[in-house]
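I hope you will forgive my troubling you with a question about protein structure. The full record is reproduced below for your convenience:

——
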Amino acid sequence: MTQLEIARKGNISSQMELVAQYEGLEAEFIREGIKQGTIVIPANVNHTNLTPRGIGQGLKTKVNANIGTSSAIDDIESELEKLRVAVEAGADAVMDLSTGGDIAGARKAVMAACPLPVGTVPIYQAGIEAISKRGAIVKMTVDDLFDSIEAHARDGVDFVTVHCGVTQTSINRLRRQGRIADVVSRGGAFLISWMLYNECENPLYEHYNRLLSIARRFDVTLSLGDGMRPGCLADATDRAQIEELLIIGELTQQAQEAGVQVMVEGPGHVPLNQIETNVQLQKCICKGAPFYVLGPLVTDIAAGYDHITGAIGGAVAAAAGADFLCYVTPAEHLTLPDIKDVRQGVIAARIAAHAGDIAKGVGGAVEWDTKMAMARKKLDWEEQIRLSIDPEHARRMRNRSEFSGTACSMCGQYCAMDLMDKYLGIAVPKC
């Protein structure tokens, strides 16, 4: 049975127990959230080395890191090193988005090495293999696509991005909208190209029950992808995006009725003042299903710094109710990220997630900050480093200065904390 089916029977799985322990919550809370569709535990029955994570309402906001080969660089060992760094930096899940070299081999290597939930986009492999076998993505067959999905599920993938809401109707909306960036989703572009060339409906929509059958058999969580997500601020929250979201809302309910866990993917590039609206729309239309957002990026001009623009948007989205943040690295829009980019992307997204958790009142979030404040008041540098979101980086920064006083070299002997401790006479509160 899937986690959803187990929860509906009133039972608590071992995965629910582990998630409850990690979150500091009762297992019954996790079970009820899964039953209602507001929490998912991506946990493929074939992912044997998995440490499960829960995603959804009332839980810590989670962070995903994307890795994977490209058609330009297909070094699997390099991607496995990125995986190691992502896990070490505190990611909660990893997506293998490989599009170059031995795609199946890369996926299997990631599955064997990754203790976290793993996601993929099966249409990448299906489309690329169609090019190899038949000369073009548009020559992909319906069976090619579903065979790829099943292969990923069989290999233990915990969640798959599937662009089921890209339909002929939403394509017509896109045409009439008149976007600047059209479609920036790679999976969405693969599907739209296939649909227009073959003059057919989206097979993931038309044969949705076939997809549900595969997902239910392996307990793969469907991540309903946003093929119409905006690729620039000017295209945000337009008719094409909302048309797809309306369809996804219906598909979410259909999947849950079939016993399949579902989360929903969101934009993209969104102005700061539209992020909360986007989250509220998704939560309303999809009846509280977990929301997985890329960024959102709040400006289009920060090439080389998009981990920052993504973290700004991610913090606002998380505070508004988003449950899962896909990291953005400094390499976004420019090149395949390297190991340094991966670490920076994960840390930036974790900061955003934590800021959102404070706003949402997630248990333990404010307490973490309070402990840091107390350590700063005491000028306890070891404790400050230990409590930092990236202790290794914090220690390097602290050791960069040759100042030998109890304060830091920013204020030196004029440290406000030091002066107040000396003259104000207020005792430091105990934790």
In short: The chain has a mean pLDDT of 95. Residues 401 and 409 are 7 Å apart (CA to CA). The domain at 3-360 is CATH 3.20.20.540 (TIM Barrel). The chain has two domains: 3-360, 365-423.
